[in-house]
Structure formats: structure tokens, C-alpha cells
Amino acid sequence: MLVIGIAGGTGSGKTTVVRKIIESLPKDEVAVIPQDCYYNDNHHIPLETRLKMNYDEPAAIEWSLLADQIQQLREDKAIEMPTYDFLTCARLKETIHIEPREVVVVEGILVLTDKRLRDMMDVKVFVDADPDDRLIRVIARDVIERGRTAQMVIDRYQEVLKPMHELHIEPSKRYADLIIPQGGHNKVAIKLLTDYIRSLLPSSKR
Which one-letter DSSP state was computed for residue 192? Predict the structure, then answer.
């Protein structure tokens, strides 16, 4: 089993890179584990307080659960991945059943900040992108998917996303084996990555 870590700022194009990895491999050979599913279970905290919490720092993630479940997959055991509701900022009761696969992709803005998790990764990738491009993508995503206004997204970007990116996410770039500039638009770098991943798989799985 290969564990691939895909990090990068919010709106950098991580989802595009993950999709290209999936498309480059045989069907059902990739399991995707989003960091966003592992936000701490804060259902006991009042909604008004939850909405104001900082979700862009490592302390917001239950790293022990994420690392434990990656280890279970490496041991060829299925997991029940938690789910998270961004509208209420709370973990849901429902889980997603994940079977072990030849490739496990752990994706999220902070996945290279946790040493235990990094040590489980066979390949560590940082998806880089221009800050303005990332902001535009974040506005488009959060307005459509998370019910926020454009002004709410801009305010959050200035107050939380930008400083947390500079403090936690950007420094984690030094742990990457491969940095993909221009985000998901860099076809050459993505092809190099997918070709390399295929080369690490048994010949029958390529």
C-alpha cells in the first residue's frame, strides 16, 4: 500500500491533483481520506461559539484518530471514516466505510504539519498556487457549498486563512517530496507525480 499526502493552501488545487491521481490508476485502487473529516468533535460547544472557532490551525484536527485509521488501512483493515458538517461546524453521526486500497491519499491543508502522519506517507506533495487565485476559488466554493456570503469569506480570509497559511501551511512545504506550482493547472508536474505513483505499484496494479 502507498500512502500519498497532498497538502497546500485552501483553494490551491488539491482536489484537482487528487482527481488526476484517481483517473490515472485502475478503478477502485484509490481511497481518499480528507483531513476535513477529522475536525475535532465539538458538538458539545454552543453553535455560536463553534462558528467563531479557528479551523485552520493544527489544534482543530483530531490527528490521533486520523493517524490511527491510516495505520489500520496499512494493516489491511477497513475503517469507519467520520463525517463533518461545515454548516453547523460539528461532526455527524454517520460514518463512511473505507476498505484498504493499493493507494491511500490523505488530503488537506495541514496534513504535512503532523509528524506521526508524515512518517506514514510514502510520498508527500505540496500543491502551491498564487494567493489571489486561491482566494477566488475559496469565495466560489464557500458561497456555493457552505452558505457564506462573499464578504464573509473575504473577512475570514483576512482574519484567519491568510495568517494561518503563513504560520502553519506554508512552512510545511519544506517536508514535501514534490511541490506542484500553479496548483491543479500544472499538467507536467501532475503527470510526473501520477507516473511515479504508478511506478511504485506492483505491475499487475498499474
Answer: H
CA-CA distance, 166 to 9, in Å (whole number)? 9
d(CA 145, CA 119): 33
What residue type is assigned to position 42 of the chain? N
Q: What is the pLDDT of residues 30-68, one digit of tens each?
A: 999 999 999 999 888 988 888 788 888 999 999 999 999
Average pLDDT taken over every residue of the chain = 89
**DSSP letter string, 46-114:** -HHHHTTS--SSGGGB-HHHHHHHHHHHHTT--EEEEEEETTTTEEEEEEEEE---SEEEEE-TTTTS-
Closest by Cα among 197, 167, 176 to 127? 176
Contacts of 135 (CB under 8 A, 6+ apart): 11, 154, 157
SS3 label, residue 108? coil
Amino acid identity of residue 61, one-letter, is I
137 has a pLDDT exceeding 70? yes
Residue 169's nearest CA partner among 4, 9, 5 is: 9
Report yes or no: 1 and 101 within 8 Å, Cβ to Cβ.
Answer: yes
